[in-house]
Each structure stands twice: as structure tokens, then as C-alpha cells.
Design goal:
The complex is a heterotrimer of chains A (about 325), B (about 280) and C (about 260). Chain A has about 325 residues and is of the alpha+beta class. Chain A has two domains: about 1-230, Rossmann fold; about 235-335, OB fold (Dihydrolipoamide Acetyltransferase, E2P) (Beta Barrel). Helix content of chain A is about 25%, strand content about 35%. Chain A has helices at about 35-45, 85-95, 105-120, 135-150, 165-180, 195-200, 215-220, 225-230, and strands at about 1-10, 10-15, 25-30, 50-55, 55, 60, 70-75, 155, 185-190, 200-205, 210-215, 235-245, 245-250, 260, 265-270, 275-290, 295-300, 305-310, 325, 330-335. In chain A, the strands form five sheets. Chain A has a six-stranded mixed beta sheet, with helices on both faces. A five-stranded antiparallel beta sheet of chain A has the order 14-13-12-15-20. A four-stranded antiparallel beta sheet of chain A has the order 18-17-16-19, with no helix packed on it. In chain A, helix 3 (about 105-120) crosses helix 4 (about 135-150). With about 280 residues, chain B is mostly helical. Chain B has one domain (about 50-280): Orthogonal Bundle (MetI-like fold). Chain B is built from 13 helices and no strands. Chain B starts with 14 loop residues before the first helix and ends with a helix. Chain C has about 260 residues and is an all-alpha fold. Chain C has one domain: MetI-like fold (Orthogonal Bundle). Classes of the chains: A alpha+beta (about 325), B mainly alpha (about 280), C mainly alpha (about 260).
Chain lengths: ~325, ~280, ~260
């Protein structure tokens, strides 16, 4: 994909996106709602037309190629199953609508449907109707329907968004296992960072129509390219600061200055709850302590803010009301 | 990003196919609906406003207009109250025969207007069940105002109920029960809780009921006896003048009823968004 | 109060309708219903009503689709106009359609040179029934089409379906139950229609005489039992057809909870 731009009315939904996906790769497009990731997916599928730029699949320019000729499997957030067709008919749809010359025989279609039903672990469900299935089952049928046409790319649009937590977790694991077996080029759109980090080979973090960072889950987690990416991946505390001669002085939180490898000027420090260390003295006061399994969460009232800290396993939690301070030495600094 | 693609507009058909479809649909509406409507007004005005005025000033026309207004003034309130009561019963209570009741109430919608008139003649006509008895008591029902009212009541029977029932069922009785637990007497609950919630839908139902009451032809044709200046309503007057080859006079009265229909449609369209808010 | 309202206004009159024909005796009823003129009228009324409802499937479907899925100036006006046959008194539409399609009318004049007569002949009846049935069809299909998720059509498209295949395999099956309901309502209205039809029909016995008119004629001859017999036969026939359509509709809807 090169320089993709898509504008809706006056606002740009996707701007200057350059991405390439390797064959067999699992890429996640991660971003908040409104970041343009679904629009990008629809551009790839051919459901929207790009205002500028090109989309290539297997080296072929997709400009002017209608959705039905792209051989792209798209799985919708709300499944979009055909309610008046059985599960088997849903899966077979993409094969049955082919022109006679390229249409497989009835027996071949039936055999492929059976194989796909096995693949999605719903053997024997072919005669049911979508309304007789649970949400997770429907989503797997939608996936089988997309796989039936042997797509060159599989696009998943928030495929787990409408499911409850446990089903989502199981389905996520199953999907990763499936990808490891069939190695189909896959693009997943999600706003759930845990989902993206767990499933994808590479993650593209999007914001306001732009790609902020592309990298492996480890890269984007350990070395976020900017404050947005850092802030979007998990909870974190943002503190404004001024940097002078390699030392960051925090301006909106009373904490000790720490070294920072940035040129002089205004900056922002971003730090995750488990990276903040608690000190015995300082300007803060322990407001609340809660235990979640082996981890202790401490809420500290400091300055005008309430800061949440996760203590390392085994640490003794402080008393509520005790004085305390914050050590922000492990913060990452970005230009403001 | 469009978070919920569901319920979107769907695929766009290619340009020329869309415009062909739009063109064909508009042609259907033009030929089937617009032209007849336009023709009513064109024919009415074929002799200018003076022609309309003289047609409407005709004593028979005057009497038909008065009769139509009178019939509507009786039937619309009766069926509004009846519809309200029935909708309330059906929406709020579970009782045996509830489904049957609903079916019976809807029956007049699927029955030919002629049959709707016929049933009253079978009851009160000269050879009807009660005809001879009424004749002795010198009470005239068929070929008189009571017959017109009864036939009109029958055909306009379900309109109010149908307009408000879905709404009352959707809204449930939680609000009413809340009002009752707060100590409000039943009639106050109805007046201050139930009625305001359904007012737009109710008004729509009343409008439709009124339009049908004033415009009904088949049912009243059977019971009226078509006595000019006496038992002819506006639609019957239209028939009589039209069959007398006074087309312009017929269309002048028809234009009046067509105007009523247009006002009804416009008011309904206006009330539509109000109803949607109530839902 | 509800029961009194329903009982007096609907149940009692219908009871009279059900009871009256039998004073002719079974034979009398059969004889009265099998007169050639009666059979011709019934055939005409039911045939025309079914035919008009069938054509309305196409016309109403088209209008509904255009109103839901396209945007054009005047769309809201067109939408409101669809209800005109509901609101316009039948006598008004009757004389308007007759004048419009008469040999010297705006549209009848176009057909006259080809030796085609619309008014005072069967095509006229057909057009009048088309007119009264159209809103039922449009209003039955419109909400279903509106609620049909757009992503289903998009899914079909990414699976390789052409526009035509999307229409025939995805949209039509989804709206079929609603279309059957619309067909049933358009038919029920058309079969009993009186006011819109009698002006344009010509009312020639055995040719263009509809069944409701024959009821009126019998009543005017004070043949109450005969009129009631014909009315009852019409109701029974309609009821059978509506019941069959209801069954069909349920079958189609079975899997669409």
C-alpha cells in the first residue's frame, strides 16, 4: 500500500498511509475508534474508493477493481451472515456465485464446506441457521465463509468486538492457532491492544488517519515511537516536564528530577504503573490500597492528581494515609 | 472509522442503474398517483373558480357536506374512545380471547366496504332481522342517518386502535404502575401518564379515522338509499352528479375531499417524527 | 365497555352475515352462487385482485427500494405521496382514474389510437386495483429493506457476488416474507374494492361486473339472502387465500427470528 489517502467530506479519515504486509504475515491495525483503521480495511476490500494512492495485492494494482474481483476475505464485526441461508449455504455462497466456468462442482463445494466446518470446529452444523448459533459460533462461520473463496488476504474487522470476554479469549487463541497452520496473509483491525499484541506478527498503531508506528509486538511495547503509542498501549501516567542539560524537571507533579536523553525544551514523560517506584517520603499520601491476586495497586494522592501504581509481586503494600513519594526514573520521554 | 457498519446504506448500485430505478419508480408514482390527483383539481377548475363556487353552493352539495361533517362528528369520537379503551385492555391485561378480540377488531380492514354496509341492511333493512320491528316503531335506521353512522363506525373501527396499540405495548406499564404506587387515581394516571405518551400516535389514528369517515363510499352507498339532499354524503353526491354527466360539479366536491386527503397526509408526515420520538 | 363496543359494532353485524344465507337452504345457496353471472363476477374480482397484487410486488418493491436506498430531491414528498390511496376517498379516485383513462382522457387518449380501451374495460379495473394496493406493498417492504444491514450486501460483494446476484440471492430472500404480507394486504383490499372500481369498470354483466357490485345489485332487488350468500362466499374465498399466504409467510420467516 502506498500513500493511501481517503477523505470523507471535509475530514481526512486516512492520510498518507504506507504499509506493506508480507505474504503469510499477521498484521494488526491498532488504534482508537476514529483512527481510520476500519476505513483502511474497507479500502483494501474495495468497499471504499481511495482518493489518492494505490493498493497492491500480490503486486497487482487494485485501482478500479471491484470488491467482488479482489479475492479478499472480509470478516465483519457483526458477522453479516445471510440469515435466510443455512450455515453450509453461507459458507458455500462465495463459490456458488462464481461464473459457471470457474465454479466448482456441487460435490467439490460440499466437500469444501465440510472441510471448513471441521476447521472451525462446527462439524454437523451445516444444516443450522445463523439464528440458532451463539455469537462465537456465528463469527467462526463468518470466518469459514471468508476462507471458502481461498482469499489472497484475510481481513478481520473487530471480529471479537461483539463477543463476551471468555468467548473472545478462546476465539483469539483458536484464530492464532489457525493462522499458524494455514499461513494466510491476515490483517486484523482492533482497538484492543492486548488482542493486537497477542495475535499479530506485527502491529501498526494508527491515530487520526496516520500510522504512528509499525513493529513487532515487542518493539512497539518496549520502544514506543511516541507518546501516543506509549499511552495507547496499556495504562500509563503522563507528566509534563522541562528538560535542561539532560535532566527532566516535572512541571505538573512534585517528583524528583531524573536524567533524560533529550535535547533541552518542553517534553512529556510517559510511565506505566508498574514502572513507578514508591518511596518512603515525599509530597504524596497513600490514598487507597487494593489487592488483585499477587499484585497490589496503590493509589497515591500527589499534587492535585491521583496516581496509580502497581507494586512488584511480593512487595509489602504501604499503609493508607502514610506519606510517600514517586520515583519516575523509568519514564520514557518524548518531545512535547 | 465507521464503528458500526451494520445498518449502513449498503452497496451503491452503479450510477445508471440507480437513476433508471429512480426514474421508473417516479414514473410509477406519477402515472398511478400524481396524475389522478392533478386531474381532480384540473377538472374541478375547468370552469374556473366560479364553477367551483356554484357547484359547492348547490343545495344538494351543501346538504351532502353537512351530512358528511355530521357523520364524522359522531363516528370519530366514538371510535376514538372505543379504540383507546380496547388498546388499553389489550396492552395492559392478559385475558382469554385476547388474540381473538384483536382479530375481530382488525376484521373490518379486510372486509369489502360493500359487505360492511350489507351487514347493517341485513340487521335493520326492510327484510332485516330487526327491520319489521323497527318499522312498526317507526324508527328508520337504514336509508337514514343512523345507518350511515353505523356503517361508517364499522369501517373506521380499527384505525385508532391500530395506531396506538404498538406504542402502548412497547412502552409497557412501568410508568403507569409507578404513578399508581405514588397514589394517583386511575383516571389521572390515564390522563397524565398514558395519554401524553401516545398523543402523536393517537392523533395520527384520529386523522386516518376521520379521513376514512368522510371519504367512505362503498359501505355508505349500501345503507344510504341515495336520497338526494337527504342521505347523500359527499362521496355519494360525487357519484350522483358524475353519473348525471355533471363532471365538473362532481370534481369540485371531489377536490374538496382530495384537499382533505392531502392535509391528512401532510399532518401525518408531520406527526411521524413525533411518533418516532415517543418510541 | 370494550366488549360492548366490539360486540355491537362488529360481532352482531357479522353474525347476521353468517346466519342470513341459510334461509335459502343449502340448495338455494349453491344455486344462487353457481349462476354464470355470479361465477363470472367472482372470477373477475379474484383474478384481477391477484393479478394487481402480483404486479404490485414488482412496482411496490421498486418504489420501496428507491425510497430506502437512494437519495434524490423530492424523495420525502414521494414517500408521503405513497399513502395517497389510503387517504383519498375511493369515489374521488374512482372518477379521477376513469376520466384519466377514458378514451378522451390524458392517458386514455394515448392508448385510444391503438384501439386500446382502458376505462370501461378490464384494463381499467386492473389499474384501479393497482392504485389501491400500491401503498400496502410499499409500506410492507420498506421497513424490512431499511433494517436489512448494509454489511450483508458488502459481505456478498467481497465474496464475489455481482450486483444482480446480491439482489436475487441476498436481498430478495430477506424481504420475501414482508412481500408476502404486502401481497396479502394488497389482495384483500383489492378484492373487495368498490368505489375506485365501479366508475371505471363499465359494469357489464359477465364481462366487467365485479362481485361487490353484484352484492349491491342483489340488495337493491331486496334479495337479502342472495346478497349475504355472495358476501359470505367472497369472505370465505378471501379467507382461504389469506390463510394460505399466511402459511407461506410463516414458512419463509421460520428462520428469521
Amino acid at each position: 500500500m502506498q500513500d493511501i489517502a481517503k477523505r470523507f467530506a471535509a475530514t481526512a479519515a486516512v492520510e498518507d498511509v504506507n504499509l506493506s504486509v508480507e505474504r503469510g504475515e499477521f498484521l494488526a491495525l491498532l488504534g482508537p475508534s476514529g483512527s481510520g483503521k476500519t476505513t483502511l480495511l474497507r479500502l483494501i476490500a474495495g468497499l471504499e474508493a481511495a482518493d489518492a494512492g494505490h493498493i497492491r495485492i500480490d503486486g497487482r494494482d487494485m485501482d478500479g477493481v471491484p470488491a467482488r474481483a479482489r479475492h479478499v476475505g472480509l470478516v465483519f464485526q457483526h458477522y453479516a451472515l445471510f440469515r435466510h441461508m443455512t450455515v453450509a449455504a453461507n459458507i458455500a455462497f462465495g463459490l456458488r456465485v462464481r461464473p459457471r466456468a470457474t465454479r466448482p462442482t456441487k460435490a467439490e463445494i460440499a466437500a469444501r464446506v465440510e472441510r471448513l466446518l471441521d476447521l472451525i470446529q462446527l462439524p454437523g452444523y451445516g444444516g443450522r441457521y445463523p439464528d440458532q448459533l451463539s455469537g462465537g459460533q456465528r463469527q467462526r462461520v463468518a470466518l469459514a465463509r471468508a476462507l471458502a473463496i481461498e482469499p489472497r488476504v484475510l481481513l478481520l474487522d473487530e471480529p471479537f468486538g461483539a463477543l463476551d470476554a471468555q468467548v473472545r479469549k478462546d476465539l483469539r487463541r483458536w484464530l492464532r492457532g489457525l493462522h499458524d497452520r494455514v499461513h494466510l496473509t491476515t490483517i486484523l483491525v482492533t482497538h484492543d491492544q492486548a488482542e493486537a499484541l497477542e495475535l499479530a506478527d506485527r502491529v501498526a498503531v494508527m491515530n487520526a488517519g496516520r500510522v504512528e508506528q509499525v513493529g513487532t509486538p515487542a518493539e512497539v511495547w518496549d520502544a514506543p515511537a511516541n507518546a501516543f503509542v506509549h499511552g495507547f498501549l496499556g495504562d500509563s501516567l503522563r507528566v509534563a516536564c522541562m528538560i535542561a542539560e539532560g535532566i527532566a524537571r516535572f512541571t505538573d507533579l512534585p517528583a524528583d528530577p531524573v536524567p533524560a536523553a533529550l535535547p533541552d525544551g518542553a517534553a512529556v514523560a510517559v510511565i506505566r504503573p508498574h514502572e513507578i517506584a514508591l518511596r518512603a517520603e515525599g509530597a504524596g499520601r497513600v490514598h487507597a490500597v487494593s489487592l488483585a491476586g499477587p499484585l497490589a495497586h496503590v493509589e497515591v494522592a500527589i499534587g492535585a492528581r491521583m496516581v496509580e501504581i502497581t507494586l512488584p509481586p511480593g512487595a509489602v503494600p504501604p499503609r493508607v494515609g502514610a506519606a510517600c513519594g514517586l520515583d519516575l526514573a523509568r519514564a520514557r520521554f518524548y518531545r512535547a | 472509522m465507521t464503528a458500526g457498519v451494520q445498518g449502513g446504506v449498503g452497496l451503491r448500485a452503479p450510477g445508471w442503474e440507480r437513476w433508471l430505478a429512480i426514474g421508473l419508480a417516479l414514473l410509477v408514482l406519477l402515472v398511478l398517483l400524481v396524475l389522478p390527483l392533478a386531474l381532480v383539481f384540473a377538472e374541478a377548475l375547468s370552469r374556473g373558480w366560479a364553477g367551483v363556487a356554484s357547484a359547492l353552493a348547490d343545495p344538494d352539495a351543501q346538504s351532502a357536506i353537512r351530512l358528511t361533517l355530521l357523520v364524522a362528528a359522531i363516528t370519530v369520537p366514538v371510535n376514538t374512545l372505543g379504540g383507546l379503551a380496547a388498546a388499553w385492555c389489550i396492552a395492559r391485561f392478559r385475558f382469554p380471547g385476547r388474540g381473538l378480540l384483536l382479530t375481530i377488531i382488525e376484521l373490518p380492514l379486510t372486509i369489502s366496504p360493500v359487505i360492511s354496509g350489507l351487514v347493517w341492511v341485513l340487521l335493520f333493512g326492510r327484510n332485516g332481522w330487526f327491520g319489521p320491528a323497527l318499522g312498526r316503531a317507526d324508527i328508520q335506521i337504514v336509508f337514514a342517518l343512523p345507518g350511515l353512522v353505523l356503517a361508517t363506525l364499522f369501517v373506521t373501527f380499527p384505525f385508532v386502535l391500530r395506531a396506538i396499540l404498538p406504542l402502548m405495548q412497547a412502552q409497557g406499564s412501568a410508568e403507569e404502575q409507578a404513578a399508581i404506587t405514588l397514589g394517583a387515581p386511575a383516571w389521572r394516571v390515564f390522563l397524565h401518564v398514558t395519554l401524553p405518551n401516545i398523543r402523536f400516535a393517537l392523533l395520527q389514528g384520529v386523522l386516518l379515522c376521520n379521513a376514512r369517515a368522510m371519504g367512505e363510499f362503498g359501505a355508505v352507498a349500501v345503507v344510504s338509499g341515495r336520497i338526494r339532499g337527504l342521505t347523500n354524503t359527499m362521496p355519494l353526491h360525487i357519484e350522483a352528479t358524475y353519473n348525471d354527466y355533471q363532471a365538473q360539479a362532481a370534481f369540485a366536491v371531489a377536490a374538496l375531499l382530495a384537499l382533505l386527503a392531502l392535509v391528512t397526509l401532510a399532518a401525518r408526515a408531520g406527526l411521524e417524527w413525533g411518533t418516532r420520538r415517543e418510541r | 365497555m370494550t366488549l360492548a363496543w366490539v360486540g355491537l359494532l362488529v360481532v352482531l353485524p357479522l353474525a347476521a352475515l353468517v346466519a342470513r344465507p341459510w334461509e335459502l337452504g343449502m340448495h338455494g345457496v349453491v344455486a344462487s352462487l353457481t349462476q354464470p353471472r355470479v361465477l363470472a363476477a367472482l372470477r373477475l374480482s379474484f383474478g384481477m385482485a391477484l393479478g394487481a397484487a402480483a404486479l404490485n410486488l414488482v412496482l411496490g418493491g421498486l418504489v420501496a427500494w428507491v425510497l430506502v436506498r437512494t437519495r434524490f430531491p423530492g424523495r420525502r414528498l414521494a414517500d408521503a405521496l405513497v399513502d395517497l390511496p389510503f387517504a383519498l376517498p375511493t369515489a374521488v379516485s374512482g372518477i379521477a382514474l376513469t376520466t384519466l383513462y377514458a378514451p378522451n382522457g390524458w392517458l386514455g387518449g394515448l392508448a385510444a389510437p391503438f384501439g386500446l380501451s382502458i376505462a370501461y374495460a378490464r384494463p381499467g379495473i386492473f389499474i384501479a386495483l393497482l392504485f389501491v394496493g400500491l401503498p400496502y406493498m410499499v409500506r410492507a417492504i420498506q421497513p424490512v429493506l431499511h433494517d436489512l444491514p448494509g454489511d450483508v450486501e458488502e459481505a456478498a460483494s467481497t465474496l464475489g457476488a455481482t450486483h444482480w446476484q446480491i439482489v436475487t440471492r441476498v436481498i430478495l430472500p430477506a424481504i420475501a416474507p414482508a412481500a408476502v404480507v404486502g401481497f396479502a394486504m394488497a389482495f384483500a383490499r383489492a378484492v373487495g374494492e368498490y368505489g375506485s372500481v365501479i366508475f371505471i369498470a363499465g359494469n357489464m354483466p359477465n364481462r366487467t361486473e365485479i362481485a361487490p357490485l353484484l352484492i349491491v345489485i342483489r340488495l337493491e332487488q331486496l334479495d337479502y339472502a342472495g346478497a349475504a350468500a355472495l358476501a359470505l362466499a367472497m369472505l370465505a374465498l378471501s379467507f382461504l387465500i389469506l390463510a394460505a399466504l399466511n402459511l407461506l409467510q410463516r414458512r419463509l420467516r421460520r428462520h428469521l427470528a
